Amino acid sequence: xxxxxxxxxxxxxxxxxxxxxxxxxxxxxxxxxxxxxxxxxxxxxxxxxxxxxxxxxxxxxxxxxxxxxxxxxxxxxxxxxxxxxxxxxxxxxxxxxxxxxxxxxxxxxxxxxxxxxxxxxxxxxxxxxxxxxxxxxxxxxxxxxxxxxxxxxxxxxxxxxxxxxxxxxxxxxxxxxxxxxxxxxxxxxxxxxxxxxxxxxxxxxxxxxxxxxxxxxxxxxxxxxxxxxxxxxxxxxxxxxxxxxxxxxxxxxxxxxxxxxxxxxxxxxxxxxxxxxxxxxxxxxxxxxx
Length: 290
Hints:
By secondary structure, the protein is an alpha/beta fold. The chain is about 35% helix and about 20% strand. α1 (about 10-20) packs across α8 (about 190-200) and α9 (about 220-230) runs parallel beside α12.
């Protein structure tokens, strides 16, 4: 097995860690050679992908790739990797046996707090989620044409070592924003890696929500983290009057509870199914700093 992860960032590194016990080779791309050491530390052979063209070294490495993970975000012009690969995945990936596309639960849009699953119609709100829906469709078409199983992983809010509420407290950026009836799902980054490896081993195709068990108000997570740290939580702030960037405010325009039942029915066990257990583990182990 040769795994190549396009856009080997936070989630990509977790996937590399989960799959390296199965893979003879794990490769990963980044936009800068400055990040080569961090990819190498995660067990990956590093390559450059600037989002616009495939260099000779990358093309040569792709010749024996069997498992591809695409984590590079799309843009207004579509998916950058598909634009480079053209309409025939097997032309540059002749040995491809399975591929995964990392998407987001944002594709579901706003459901006013109702539960959604993989059968729910997508009605994205933000421009970035609209682009994700288009990218999912493009990858589905390309995979079907190449006769390669495609797993689309729809991820909720990602956190874990180095990216969590404790870090926000340390930076002085922790906030308890309150919007009536608002809930979010989240997912620990190690569970993303484990889920991708699980689906790859089973050669699964289809759409999968990779998310925790417990959608909840975001201010509850901040309050719980403060209790674990033994500090006072920040004062609650009303969402409507809070000073937020347009990007931060846009996240609150989508309210839904995302089910992970499909993954569980396949037999996948989430190591961090709810935020309380996960945050305690991060704090007590010292892993919260990354």
